[in-house]
Design goal:
The chain is α/β, with parallel strands linked by helices. It is built from 13 helices and 19 strands. The protein has an eleven-stranded mixed beta sheet.
Length: 456
């Protein structure tokens, strides 16, 4: 897509769409959803077979009619991948029409491929440009892209920065020394990384003798994604304190786009691109659609994607939606993500997410910010322990803070010397270790409840 040549003081990249009154926005969504469902039915072997078996017509009259359609998930993608064609039964275009593919990390199973036609890729880049503009990026900015280019859907996002006219600096996932060298010599104004790595890179910069606030003085915006920390205020503040830059959280899915939602300057949730993606929140067990503001599993339906439409894709992310107009003037819904359904654990009847624990650990000035959680069974109950690194010995203080914030006290807090925990990393970091023997049994119970709900 060509550069839009907007005035630098223009607040919105696409004012008409971003501030569209909700009745008009929902009318646009319905028009696009009707086309997307018919396209999916006529071109995907999976959707046609599944909907025919369920007696569902692709022709709808309202947005609420979407609730009649079955969910898909990561397992659906794995089951369909490679069946009948290279991209499989969910794909709606021949391979000749696919110009780009990404894959998931495979952290929850076999990596899944995500195909893009040229139309899809252009829409992808337009979405990125819009979200970048939302953070304050303008054509006179230098954007250093610190995300992985190797099959990762966030890799091409740098082209979105170039669409709006910014200078794209294609660094990628390189060793810290090389990245700090690039940041020192090229003095970017914007930088994108994961929360863990943005924090770790700041620590490494200090170890190398840099003063991040002075030696990288041009850096005013850090975009973070890939981990839940970006929506945790204490984590953002910890990164901002190191760099002296404003931190914005982005959210993306390899199944759809590199970034589907992002923060505005008010940082009260992430604006999802509702003209391209429809969002629902459903009860994780009954699959009933929940009202705005209630917490459940986030489900997305693409409205313009042609190569592989995602119809009611259940993400496994737990969160809630606010569709009220934001202070920034945008009318598109804001999503708030609490954590992953498969990482939540229950202690003494209290639901605990790793993000709850991160909030406490990153807030405490006596900790380095690195941590690891272990959930396990003891005497037929779930317990958890937290390992962290101190600047001083503060395990009891952390225990008390976790009890106050989550409602349940950890079995213990284990204190490591600084840099001895081994939880830091240069990209995505695994911080939650689930050793519960009851996990498989719990999944069976959940599955049984879901099957029961289907037949009611």
């Amino acid at each position: 897509m060509a550069k839009k040549n907007l005035p630098y003081d223009e607040k919105y990249y696409d004012r008409e769409v971003e501030t569209m009154p909700r009745p008009e926005l929902e009318k646009l969504q319905l028009e696009r959803l009707k086309d997307e469902l018919v396209w999916s039915y006529e071109n995907s072997a999976y959707y046609k077979r599944t909907w025919d078996e369920a007696g569902i017509s692709p022709h709808i009259d309202s947005l609420e009619d979407l609730q009649k359609f079955p969910f898909i998930n990561k397992q659906t993608e794995r089951d369909c991948q490679g069946v009948g064609s290279f991209f499989g039964e969910l794909c709606c275009v021949p391979e000749d029409d696919v110009v780009y593919m990404a894959t998931s990390s495979g952290s929850t199973g076999v990596p899944t491929m995500s195909p893009f036609s040229q139309h899809d890729f252009d829409e992808f880049m337009h979405a990125e440009a819009r979200l970048f503009w939302q953070t304050g990026m303008r054509p006179n900015d230098r954007y250093l892209h610190g995300m992985n280019f190797a099959l990762y859907v966030g890799g091409p996002c740098v082209i979105g920065a170039q669409e709006l006219g910014a200078l794209g600096i294609w660094v990628g996932a390189v060793p810290s020394d090389r990245l700090l060298w690039a940041m020192k010599h090229y003095q970017p104004t914007h930088f994108w990384s994961s929360p863990s790595y943005a924090w770790l890179l700041g620590q490494k910069a200090i170890e190398k003798g840099y003063d991040p606030k002075k030696d990288f003085a041009n850096l005013r915006t850090i975009i973070i994604s890939g981990e839940p920390g970006g929506s945790i205020e204490t984590t953002r503040k910890a990164i901002e304190d190191i760099w002296g830059a404003s931190v914005y959280d982005f959210f993306g899915l390899s199944d759809i786009y590199g970034a589907c939602a992002g923060m505005c300057e008010y940082k009260d949730g992430l604006h999802i691109i509702e003209d391209q993606i429809l969002v629902e929140v459903v009860d994780p067990v009954t699959h009933e659609v929940l009202p705005d503001g209630e917490k459940g599993e986030l489900v997305y339906t693409t409205l313009t994607k042609r190569s592989r439409p995602m119809i009611r894709f259940a993400t496994g992310d737990i969160g809630w939606v606010n569709r009220e107009t934001c202070q920034c003037g945008r009318t598109h819904a804001r999503i708030h993500i609490s954590g992953r359904k498969d990482e939540m654990f229950i202690v003494s009847a209290v639901n605990v997410f790793p993000s709850d624990i991160e909030h406490v650990v990153r807030k405490d000035k006596g900790l380095t910010g690195e941590y690891r959680i272990r959930a396990y069974d003891e005497n037929h109950t779930t317990k958890y322990e937290v390992s962290d690194e101190p600047f001083d010995a503060i395990s009891k203080r952390v225990e008390n803070a976790l009890k106050t914030h989550t409602g349940v006290r950890p079995a213990r807090v284990i204190v490591f010397d600084t840099d001895k925990l081994g939880a830091s990393g240069e990209h995505k970091v695994k911080r939650f270790i689930d050793e519960r023997t009851s996990t498989a049994e719990a999944q069976e119970v959940l599955h049984a409840a879901e099957e029961h709900a289907k037949h009611e």
